[in-house]
Amino acid sequence: MNAKEAQKMVKACLSKKRYTHTMNVRDAAVHLAEKYGADPDKAELAALLHDAVKERSREELLQILQNNAIMAQNAEKSPPPVWHGICAAILAQTEWGVTDPEIVSAIRCHTTGKAGMSKLDKIIYLSDMISAERDYPEVYELRRLAEEDLDKAVCTAVEKNIGWMRECGKSIDPLSLEALEDLKRGMQTREDTHE
């Protein structure tokens, strides 16, 4: 599947609002990929597919997870709001012909992050949070950071996301906590080597 085919597919299966968000994420992802030396074509495809199954029912997502138990490993530990990323990653491989593991990973962890995120993982995660239609108070700081330092921006984004989940009393995916720990370690190591 190429970007043109992906765009056509998501336009057909998403609401207008979700499709607008998807196109904004694509624009942000391509921009950040070009800025930070990642592959803009991979960023475009991952961004186009990241929310492809977001509007499917919980039952449909559960069915995808059950049908692909090996690929869905540990998904049962994740709260239902993150299932759409896992399911989109599964369908990317099983139905949409996406064979690049980097793209699949970026789709899979775009809501949670994970330890050892690749540059593309970080770009898709961050692009989802700073897309043009977003207008929550912290988005302006995240957009500014995104232009200055990818790692710092992603670390701040994951931290804010965990904070919001705690405030709302929602369950936090263990992957998000691992991602934050890993990102903080990476930032500390970077600071130590620059002293």
Structural commentary:
This protein is mainly alpha-helical and 195 residues long. It has a single domain, classed as Hypothetical protein af1432, CATH 1.10.3210.10. Helices cover 68% and strands 0% of the residues. It has 10 helices and no strands. It is globular, with a radius of gyration of 16 Å. The relative contact order is 0.12.
Question: How would you concisely characterize the structure shown here?
Answer:
This protein has 195 residues and is mainly α.
User: What form results from the Cα inertia axes?
Assistant: globular
Low-confidence stretches: none
Beta-strand portion reads under 5%
| Largest sheet features | none
Query: How large is the radius of gyration?
Result: 16 Å
CATH topology: Hypothetical protein af1432
Number of alpha- plus pi-helical segments: 10
Mean pLDDT across the residues is 93
CATH architecture: Orthogonal Bundle
CATH homologous superfamily, by name? Answer: Hypothetical protein af1432
**What percent of residues adopt helix (DSSP H or I)?**
55-70%
Distance from N terminus to C terminus (CA atoms, Å) equals: 46 Å
Would you count the extended β strands for me?
A: 0
The tally of structural domains comes to 1
What's the CATH C level? Mainly Alpha
Oligomer: single chain
H/E element sequence: HHHHHHHHHH
